[in-house]
């Protein structure tokens, strides 16, 4: 291999060009599947490939590029914008005059804003461009509804350890570098956590070492820290915080500890977790145990002062305490009922007798008139809600 080729990451150098070398996603690209037939017939529709990192989205787009008569153009949403899109559209219109199709692949489409996605829509709608977008984020949230309705969404699943073993074996065979036993291949596939790019990046580092014998010990050295699927800004972030919340609500301290550890070891900001625990202390534990809010606030303060890794034990303590505490959502539900009345009735006037009257004019207008001062007089018949909400009970 020449030096220029070696400068290209291994994952890109050995990227398969045909479906037979694409491992994993059998449901999606099985022999008689819609997508497989569309690729073979060079008749792919506009689509969005949605899946976790390293699941094969870019590789699948690359296979389409190698099996189409269309001009295949790629853009990265992180480094491109409207100007680049306008140039692609001009080229696509020119291709259309020559009866040639244009496929535009945009990696990380979720990073394009609404305006940029809107600019793409007319060309997709008119068939000037066949659009293929790749994203790790839920398209329902990150892709404009109009664009989403004009594409087919194909979901890629996290690769299995068996899939990764095949990918690693193929890579070792192609680069013909190093001696890797089956147990090392299995270990690397397990450590890569469903991410083919992670596996290949680690393999590339190992193959670049003087001693070509790849052992489990060497793999552990490269994996200085276990690679966990945890994107602090992505969908998995919200999935795991939801799992933590529901585990505590259900009283399962062990599950809650597992999820909080996943977050912390994945690099989550401990203050974010601490804020969620403060919220949980009132939303779910509430009046059943008012001490929970005191502890949660103290833990937030400890996280602020200490940071990781010291504050992990404080968060663990709080999670266990909140999980084991009795639950009472009275305050949470009461606020919801009051909010509903605020939305339905609008800005109802404050009753005159409980208004403040710091000036003579206000007193002349009846502000604070007939107000009964509870510490000194009987105020049992005094009302405090607007007339329209008289007698309302929120809890």
* CATH architecture group name of the largest domain: 3-Layer(aba) Sandwich
**Count of distinct structural domains:** 4
How confident overall, as mean pLDDT?
Answer: 88
Query: Which oligomerization state do the chains in this entry correspond to?
Result: single chain
> Biggest β-sheet, characterized?
5 strands, parallel
Helix-strand blueprint:
Blueprint: H1 3-6, H2 10-13, H3 26-29, H4 34-40, E1 47-50, H5 57-66, E2 71-76, H6 82-97, E3 102-107, H7 114-125, E4 130-135, H8 139-142, H9 145-148, E5 152-155, H10 161-175, E6 179-180, H11 182-191, H12 196-207, E7 213-214, H13 216-222, H14 235-249, H15 253-265, H16 270-285, H17 291-306, H18 312-324, H19 330-345, H20 360-364
Parallel strand pairs: 1-4, 1-5, 2-3, 3-4, 6-7
Structural commentary:
The chain has helices at residues 3-6, 10-13, 26-29, 34-40, 57-66, 82-97, 114-125, 139-142, 145-148, 161-175, 182-191, 196-207, 216-222, 235-249, 253-265, 270-285, 291-306, 312-324, 330-345, 360-364; strands spanning 47-50, 71-76, 102-107, 130-135, 152-155, 179-180, 213-214. It has 20 helices and seven strands. It has four domains: 25-155, Rossmann fold, CATH 3.40.50; 161-222, Helicase, Ruva Protein, domain 3, CATH 1.10.8.60; 235-324, Zinc Finger, Delta Prime, domain 3 (Up-down Bundle); 331-389, no CATH class. With 395 residues, the chain is of the alpha/beta class. The strands form two sheets. Strands 2-3-4-1-5 form a five-stranded parallel sheet, sandwiched between helices. Strands 6-7 form a two-stranded parallel ribbon.
